[in-house]
Write a structure and sequence with these properties.
Helices cover 39% and strands 26% of the residues. With 96 residues, the protein is of the alpha/beta class. Helix 1 packs parallel to helix 2.
Length: 96
């Protein structure tokens, strides 16, 4: 997995699958929040899945930190998975 951040935009390339991926994503989210961003967009370009720990950190950012999160997904399988988990509205999911 490769991740880049530019202010309130976080771009993730590759599959999200390991604990280290979670740690990197968490670090970028926290850095974005510490920079004063109350709205963050996450682009997941091609991952076919997402780990439960990443779902958890997204929920924490929304519920505890009060951040408006938008998740843009490039893979239809991931979009369908988030739909089955009833997370489309919660994460403000959009297809790219």
């Amino acid at each position: 997995m490769k991740i880049t951040r530019d202010n309130n935009l976080i771009v993730i390339e590759g599959n999200i699958k390991s604990v280290s991926d979670y740690t990197v994503i968490q670090g970028h989210l926290q850095a974005s929040i510490l920079n004063g961003n109350s709205s963050i967009t996450i682009k997941i370009l091609d991952s076919i899945s997402i780990t439960s720990s990443v779902i958890g950190i997204f929920l924490k950012v929304i519920k505890k930190d009060g951040v408006s999160l938008t998740v843009q997904v490039g893979n239809r399988h991931l979009y369908d998975l988030l739909n089955e988990l009833n997370l489309l509205a919660v994460f403000n999911v959009r297809e790219m």
